[in-house]
C-alpha cells in the first residue's frame, strides 16, 4: 500500500521528464512538426495541380538548364550544386553542435561561421535562379488563344526545332526576317501541333492570333497568368514554394548570426552548455530536410 | 545527448547524402528508358526510385544530424507519428482527387 503510493507520487509528483529533453528543444521539435505539415500541404497542393493539368505541365529539368558562366543545356546541375551547398552547411552545423558538446568554443565559432557562409551562398544561388526563371529564354514561347474551350484559357506552345528565327521586335534579327514566317511550327506541351492558321502573320510579319511571351513575368498583362514554360500554376508554385523555403533559409541565417554573436561574446561558455547552438541547429537541418523534398518533387519527379 | 555521435560518423552521413544525391542527378539526366516506361500505381518506376531515395536521405538527416536516433522513445514517436499519419493521408486525398479533376477539366 505504502509502496504503491510512493510509486504514484514519483510519476505524477513532478520532477521527472518523460521526454528527457529541455523545454526549448521540445518546443523547437513541435514547431518543426507544424512546419513540416505546412510544407507538405504546399507540396501536396503542387502535386494536386500538377496531376490535374499533367498534360500541360512543363518538365522541370527542361526549364532549369542554365549554369553560371557556361552557355548550353545543363539540366539539373545547378540545382544539384545548390543541394550540395545546403547539405554541406548542414554538416558544418552538426560539427558546430558537436564542438559545443565538448565545450570547444573555437570549434563552434569556425563551424558556425562556415554554416552562415553556406546559407548566404545558397540564398545568392536562389536569387540567380529566380532571375533566369523570370527572364526566360531568348526564344520565348507562343501564347495561342483558345478556340471553343469553356474558360478561354490561352495555351502555351513551344517552337519546334532549335534554330527557328522568328521575326519579333524583341530580338535583334530584324534585318533578314522577310519570308521566314511561313516556316514556323509550334507544339503544345502535350505534343499536339498547333494549327497553322493560329500561327498566321500579317504583312508586317507580326502574329495575328498568337502572342510571344518570355519567361515568367511578374509585371504587365501576363503577370502570374501566363508564362513561357507551360501551365501558369507551375511558375506560381515555383515562386511560392522555393520562395517560402528561401524565406526559411533567410530567417535561419539571421538566427544563426544572432547565436554566432552570442557565441563570440562567450554567453554560452559562461552558461556551461551550448544547447542554444543545438536548437538553432535543429532548425537549420529542418531547412535542409525541406530542400531535399523540394529538390525531388520540383526538379526530379 | 548524442555524445556518441563522433565526427567520423558525421562525415560518413555526409558522403552518403552526397552519393545518393549524385545518383538522383545521374538518373534524372540519363532517364533510363526501362524505368521511365514502367508504371507502378500510376507513377513511373523512376519517380518511385526518386521518392525512395529522398526518404532515405530524410531518414539520415533526421536520425543522424538532428540526433533523433539518440532521443527517448517517447519523444521519437510523438514527433514521427503525427507526420507519418497526416502527410500520407493528405497526399492520398489530394492526388486521387486530382485525377478526377483532370477528367473534369479535359474530358478523359
Concise synopsis of the structure shown:
The complex is a heterodimer of chains A (301) and B (108). Chain A is mainly alpha-helical and 301 residues long.
Q: How would you sum up this structure, described in words?
A:
The complex is a heterodimer of chains A (301) and B (108). Residues 162-181 of chain A have low confidence and may be disordered. Chain A contains eight helices and four strands. Chain A has a four-stranded antiparallel β-sheet with strand order 3-2-1-4, with no helix packed on it. With 301 residues, chain A is mainly alpha-helical. Chain A has two domains: 24-136 and 234-300, Four Helix Bundle (Hemerythrin (Met), subunit A); 138-213, no CATH class. Chain B has 108 residues and is mainly alpha-helical. Chain B folds into two domains: 1-71; 72-108. Helix content of chain B is 78%, strand content 4%. Chain B has four helices and two strands. Chain B has helices at 7-30, 33-37, 45-65, 73-106, and strands at residues 39-40, 43-44. In chain B, strands 1-2 form a two-stranded antiparallel ribbon. In chain B, helix 1 (7-30) runs antiparallel to helix 3. Chain B starts with 6 loop residues before the first helix and ends with a helix. The chains are: A mainly alpha (301), B mainly alpha (108). At the A-B interface, helix 2, helix 4 and helix 8 of A face helix 1, helix 3 and helix 4 of B.
